[in-house]
Here is the input.
Amino acid sequence: ILMARQEYLAAIDSYRQAPVTAVTLNKLGIAYHHLFALDTARKDYQKALLIRPNYPEAINNLGAADFAQGRYKQAIKLYRKALTLMPDSAVIAANLGTAYFAAGKFQSGLESYQSAFRLDPSVFDGESLQVIQGPASQRERVRQDYCIAELFAEVGNQDRALEYLRKALNDGFHDRNRLMQDTDFTQLRKTPEFAQLMAEENIH
Here is the structure.
């Protein structure tokens, strides 16, 4: 309840009074993660893994801490391990994709996003600590948002496709030829909303 209310310090106090288990240590790490105390969060995730070495949620969260501190190669390694242990997790697949994008491995990022989307099309909805935020680099962020727009367009979700396409455009996407020839956007290009977006972004 305290976590849901974003009362993280109070949540930490409560977790510290609970029995020491892998689950409570992982949750304790999440609370510190929310407070951006990444080194402390990392220690709690590692303690959880000492108790339960193959705990996919803790491995995922440890990967998120590495990602937040720019250790993309290590984050990828951890996400891949977590996904092996929990292959049906759309969240972990999405996190792996984001780490690939941050590392400049765009094709691997796209493939991971496609896997995540197949597992759960709503995985990119909203914001959660479990689904890590996008790359800091503008170039990688543009690629990421464009790929997510393609995924939504493929399944006919035009509103979400436009949302992510707008993000890509706002961050500097300007490859008109690709946008106008991309078969994933064939139906989207027929809509007045797409025309309006192009007019707003001065893409002709």
User: Anything to note?
Assistant: The chain has eleven helices and no strands. The chain has a mean pLDDT of 89. The first helix runs from residue 8 to 17. The two ends are 50 Å apart (CA to CA).
